[in-house]
Structure formats: C-alpha cells, structure tokens
Amino acid sequence: MYVLYTILASLVSFFILKWLKKRRYCTDLKRLDGKTALITGGSSGVGKETAVALATRGARVVIACRDAEKAEKAVREIRLRGRSLNVAHMELDLANMASVRDFCERFLQKEKRLDVLVNNAGEEEEEEEEEDVVAYPMPSVLDWTDDGFSMCFGVNHLGHFLLTNTLLPRLKECTPSRVVTLTCSNYKYQKLDFQDLNYNLLPFFTYSRSKLANIYFTQELARIGEAKGVTAYAVHPGFVQSGWTCHYSFLFRMLMQVVMWMFFVPCELGAQTVVYCAVSEAAAKHNGGYFVDCRPATLRPFARDSGVARKLWEASERLVKLV
C-alpha cells in the first residue's frame, strides 16, 4: 500500500505542477497587415515564436540576429509556420555599439515603417541563441562587450537602449506604435547601483540588475513617447524551456531537461504575453506597465521609482554617447 500511495502522491504532485505552469494564450485576433515588426534575436526561443505569431497576423517581420546562418534557417521556418513570405533578417550585434548604429542606419534606409519593436535578444551564445544574457553561470555571462560594458548590462540594457532611441523617430512616424521589452521576475532581487552600473561579479545578481534596468527603461520610454503615440511594455515571459544548459555536462543537461519539462513553459507559451502587448488594445491602457501571463502585474515599490528611471535613462544616454 505504501508503494501505491507513493505513486498516487507522485501523480497528483505531477499534475498540480503541470497545472501551475499552465499559461494564458493571447486571444486578441487583431491583424497587423501593412505593419512592420522588428524582433531582436528572432532566430530561436521566444523571439522566433513571437516572429511566427506576428507573421501569421500579416505583419512584415524583420528579425535582427548576429549569426546570419541561424537567422536564415529561422527565416525559412518562420515563413513556413507563419504562412508568410514577408519575413527577413538583418545582422545585429548588440554587444557592439558600432554594430547597433550601423544596423539602425541600414534598417532606416531599407524599411519605411516600424510599428512594433520587440527588444527580445541578448548575447547569442556560440551554440544556442538565448532570449537574453541568462542568470546562470555560463562562461560568457561575466564577459565584457566590445565597448567595455559588462555583458549583461551592455547587451540586455544598453544595446537595446541605443537601438530603440535611434529608431524612435521612425516609431513616431508610424504611430500608434509599440515597444515591447523582455525582462524577468528576477528584477526583484537587486537594486541599481549608479556608482557601479557595470557590476560584473556574481552572474545571478548581474543578470537581475540588467532586468531591473529593462523595467526602468520601459517606464521612462513610456513617459517620453506617450505624447508622440509610442507606448512601451515590459514583459516577463515566464521561465521558458531553452538551450541555456548547452555549456554544461551531458548528465547535467539531461537532469535540467527533466526539470524544465516539469516546471518551465514551452517557448510558444512564453511568447504569448509578448504578442499580447504587441497587439492588444487592453494592453495599450497600461503604457509603461509590467506584464505576466497576458495581464498587467504589480512591481515591487522600488521598481516603480520614476526618479530612478529618469536617472538611468540619462546615465545610459551618456554611456552610449547619445548626448
């Protein structure tokens, strides 16, 4: 009987866990015909699933990635799954500010519209392109960018900060337009230190600070852009099943695959809140908001400090030489 009870308890626990990780789908069927969406890091994970969803809705989709070979392969898949030939890729390295400026110049010359900007990508690992520089102690997390910034802060925040600001005039021309930036619930474990924005010691804390910076960036962008018809949203897509374990041993990868299958959500589900913020009129009522599971969520009080958001914006302008 003990064995039977153990099996039953295990099954009940399993189904409870499966229920707890169940996520909401974006049910808004709004079309995006005639509109252009730019997604950084769209060759895998949440970025690719977002690209498929927006292409299905009729948008012209441009994915910006560092690895041209992976991007081309992803474009073929997105076209097939999204039932659209209006998908393209452009080269972008968010760890290099010169590359960001060059990308923006090429994009503005080539693309006449920009209606949705999804700041999804971070550093692209050699073996697996992640949605952002992750919180786990992979060898590259504590590296430095070509411009001397910590990899997490430089890619997850500063690269997208420069990209968004340089493309902001085009977003204003195509209003109403939206900027969706991926963040993470890990933001709550750290606060910014303006004496050391380049903090680069413990991977988890380094990552958490960069995700908090994404939230402040969204809030200040919402304040600046609202009068011009540009709205901004920060999205926590949940903990998704991705390839972050690629640098570890085979046994560890197998163990984490089981853990991710039980507790994490597929990338398609992770992308739902991103799509929701890109298309939903209900989301538009929460400009500058933080979203989880296709609905606004409450931030910790320190993450709602408009003074800190403005201070970070001004510091970022100096760091990327916008002023």
From TrEMBL:
CDD domains: retinol-DH_like_SDR_c_like (cd05327). Keywords: Oxidoreductase. GO terms for molecular function: oxidoreductase activity. It holds the Pfam family adh_short. InterPro entries: NAD(P)-bd_dom_sf, SDR_fam. Belongs to the short-chain dehydrogenases/reductases (SDR) family. PANTHER family: PHOSPHATIDYLINOSITOL-GLYCAN BIOSYNTHESIS CLASS F PROTEIN-RELATED, RETINOL DEHYDROGENASE 14. This is Retinol dehydrogenase 14. It comes from Merluccius polli (Benguela hake). The gene is RDH14.
